[in-house]
Design goal:
There is one protein chain. This protein is of the alpha/beta class. It has a single domain, classed as Glycosidases (TIM Barrel, Alpha-Beta Barrel). The chain contains twelve helices and twelve strands. The protein has an eight-stranded parallel beta sheet with strand order 5-4-3-2-1-10-9-8. Helix 3 packs across helix 5.
Length: 434
Amino acid sequence: MLLVGAALQANMASSQQSEVEIGMDRSNMATEWTIAPPGEPNIYPFNGPYNGPGVFQARRLAVFDGVTRMHPQWFRDGFGPDKPENVQLFVDMVKQVHSRNMKLLAVVGPTSADFEKSDILTPEQSGCQWSTYPLSKIDLGKFSKRIRTYFGAVKTAGLSVDAFEIGNELDLYCNDADMPKTSEFAAHQWKWFLSDRQVHAFAAGYVPFLKTFTGLIREYFPNARIITFGMSNPTGNSAPLIAALANFKDSSGHVFDYTTLVDGYGTHIYPPSDTTQHMVDSATRNLTAQAAVFPHRGEKPIWITEWSESGAAFWSSHKWYFQYDARGKVGGDLNLAGGGYPAMPRSRAIVAFRRDVIARLRAQADPVDVRYLFYYSYDSVAKSDMCDATGFNTSRGIKGQCYSGVIDPVNGDLLKDVAGALAPEPAHEPHPVR
């Protein structure tokens, strides 16, 4: 990439950054077990009695309040099976989000209730850790009934939903068994290898789901924005699956551009961040490649509905990226120096991503219109010993867990530097390089 002076970078950030709307992901807010340690801090109400009277709701409110401290414009979560308690939890989520001056992006995918039990694929058949269903086998009547139950409850409560994401990572075999097995992607180093037949098979499953869902959304919430599923493919090469929707021929020979049903395209970005240079180059390359094949590029923006500066560590065999000190020794909280960037903590890597990837792509002569940016996630955590040597973990006596969210897992306080870097207007400029 070309080297750009600090003054020009600042101008790019000030002119473009304010136009990017910032969101925070906190998935599964309707599930008790996800709102407890280690994901949440080991303080009340999170360490209260499991399913104790009123504790679950107290936990949910604590998460909403915690996210609000960052002042994001959007909140991302979804809803699940057609059960009375889940429906009311979704209605409550809409209320809580809007009462805190945020907009809601609801990500909705198929559930087991939308299929015949006979269509299930076992882990042995699917190649995944869990059983799954081919999206092409979805019972759209069951699906529509479930969606109407949720939408009707929201309307009855006098509420609305701001935007919908039609599925989550449906380019991943585990989430859509019409795709090749995960092992096949791994065998090809996660690079694009699908045949025209496989691409058509994916579209044949997704098109009816997309058409049905967008019709229901327009019926209940005509002003809501609609985007495609967030693509999970780490190389960003799943974009041809979206391109295939623009000229899809069904079994009757009818051709239609199904991208006209949506207002934008969803994607997930987890760039490797062992060095900031690697992160910037990888994210820039992937977003540019996606934008090059998206239909109606000038009309429909990209929504990055999941991204993290450090999340890619979990999908690779690399060590945790923020574990070094200024001398490159294990035991600190920096990634490694590389290219034009010094070693830096997570907060500075986040600002570099927003400035040197998003703002730059938006400002170039042939712009890549990334208009929405959702961080994954508020309290992201995973079981791993990769982080045991970091200064963050050692200073808190944490072992066997990696934290890459925006809160301190001990006391629940915001990590001020990370929260500042994720604010709608970044709180600081990182380093005067490039």
